[in-house]
């Protein structure tokens, strides 16, 4: 993956805006990896200069290079009115 080697590329780690948009759509479409692989195996996509060729390699790149979501925090409190019922807040 050439763009992944240069974080100064505008669509890092993807090669282009078009590849970024394709990855965004594939990753958020709800398609199974088997279906994504079938799409990537089509003759049409074989002529496109994609930096990945399987759903697995696409998702590995997403995991490796894309920012992580913030983690959840948890706080348990006891209210004066409900001493025997601790309340847990997730935020």
UniProtKB/TrEMBL annotation:
Name of this protein? Uncharacterized protein
Taxonomic superkingdom: Eukaryota
């Amino acid at each position: 993956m050439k763009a992944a080697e240069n974080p100064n590329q505008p669509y890092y780690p993807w090669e282009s805006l078009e590849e970024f948009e394709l990855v965004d759509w594939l990753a958020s479409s709800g398609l199974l990896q088997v279906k994504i692989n079938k799409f990537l195996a089509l003759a049409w996509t074989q002529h496109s200069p994609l930096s990945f060729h399987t759903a697995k390699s696409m998702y590995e790149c997403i995991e490796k290079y894309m920012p992580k979501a913030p983690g959840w925090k948890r706080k348990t409190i006891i209210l004066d009115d409900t001493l025997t019922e601790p309340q847990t807040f997730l935020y």
